[in-house]
Write a structure and sequence with these properties.
Four Helix Bundle (Hemerythrin (Met), subunit A); Rossmann fold; 2 domains; five-stranded parallel β-sheet; 17% strand; binds 5-S-methyl-1-O-phosphono-5-thio-D-ribulose
Length: 350
């Protein structure tokens, strides 16, 4: 079942409500692109490739919602919708990449509003199907790095739920498991929203892959004591020099892995690489509401004193020198990243 899917019978977008997992599996339907932008902001759907595909279908909804009877008016409405969708979350470049792709398709079909509407939906469907294919291609490359018996640390959720289906870093783990390799996953719980313990653990249960949840701050202990062979995660944006922006905590994890000579592998589709941004410092880091940090309860009681304040950056920057290699759908990219990333992207654009 896909995380993000167009319902052709009812012309609606269907999303799994990830805020409720693992306790409840519920689908939500959308017919209004403003609501789609809100679903991205509120993290009904999350994970860079998943929000890209969601926004692409959001553009298809915007095309249907527009009452425009001529292509000029429809183009204008779609440009407005593109801004609303792109502003939903700032860090994952897949979001603006997907929206711009839909906008370009629309503006290239100037025959009639109906042709334009159909073209955007078709393009969104194509993007979603491509996402699944690309994940499986990355998974095959990535699985070649996994040895039988490996223990890996995985950060955040990068599985089927973070994509249209299959997953990036978790897709690699899933592929290695399907190839018959014994693999044990130490799942970072990933404070504050717990994508690891809520979503990754839920997925690993479905796939029958052996795992244990660890607190984020236990990773250094496991790495230093020689119990981990690889570190895997995804990314929301990779700069031209190979700096990786991913879920908060990735930097500390990569530092600890590097210090203990454990290889660090981000698994990212080319759509997550932003050649226009030279290094990680140029990537906007989303700061989310402090409530996500403060509203933690144990035994039904708050854990922080009334009036406590918090900071909640959702992502951090892992400098490229901490990264061993980047797994993509066109192969595994090794340093020097600046040169080799550009070559990989240009090879696909040819
Ligand atoms: O805030 P989220 O849950 O959207 O953050 C997701 C991540 O950081 C993932 O690691 C990243 O998007 C790569 S997922 C394929």
């Amino acid at each position: 079942m896909r995380t993000v899917e167009w319902d052709y019978a009812n012309n609606r977008l269907r999303l799994i409500d990830q805020r409720l997992l693992p306790n409840e599996f519920k689908n939500l339907s959308y017919q209004d692109y403003h609501e789609v932008a809100k679903a991205i902001r509120d993290m009904v759907v999350r994970g860079a490739p998943a929000i890209g595909a969601t926004a692409a279908f959001g553009m298809a909804l915007a095309a249907r919602q527009s009452r425009a009877r001529d292509v000029e008016t429809l183009s204008h409405d779609l440009k407005n919708a593109a801004e609303v969708l792109k502003n939903a979350r700032p860090t994952a470049v897949n979001l603006s990449w997907a929206v711009d792709r839909m906008l370009n398709v629309a503006l290239g079909h100037s025959g009639s509003p109906e042709i334009m509407r159909d073209a955007v939906l078709q393009a969104a469907q194509q993007l979603a199907d491509e996402d699944v294919r690309i994940n499986q291609e990355m998974a095959l490359f990535g699985a070649s790095l996994i040895d039988d018996g490996d223990t890996v640390i995985h950060h955040c959720n990068t599985g089927a739920l973070a994509t249209v289906d299959w997953g990036t870093a978790l897709g690699v783990i899933r592929m290695a498991h399907e190839q018959g390799k014994r693999i044990h996953v130490l799942v970072d719980e990933t404070r504050p929203r717990l994508q690891g313990s809520r979503l990754t653990a839920w997925e690993l249960e479905q796939y029958g892959i052996d795992y244990e949840i660890i607190t984020d701050n236990a990773a250094g202990y496991f790495l230093r004591s020689g119990q981990v062979q690889k570190v895997l995660f995804g990314a929301d944006r990779v700069a031209a020099n190979g700096d990786v922006v991913n879920k908060i905590g990735t930097y500390m994890l990569a530092l600890a892995a590097h210090a203990n000579k454990v290889p660090v592998y981000p698994v990212v589709p080319l759509s997550t690489i932003d050649l226009a941004t030279p290094d990680g410092e140029g990537i906007p880091i989303e700061e989310r509401p402090p409530d996500e940090v403060l509203n933690l309860e144990t035994n039904g009681m708050p854990v922080v004193p009334a009036g406590a304040r918090a900071r909640n950056p959702a992502f951090d920057i892992t400098p490229h020198h901490l990264v061993t290699a980047i797994v993509t759908e066109v192969g595994i990219i090794y340093p020097p990243f600046k040169r080799n990333i550009r070559r990989a992207v240009e090879q696909v654009m040819k």
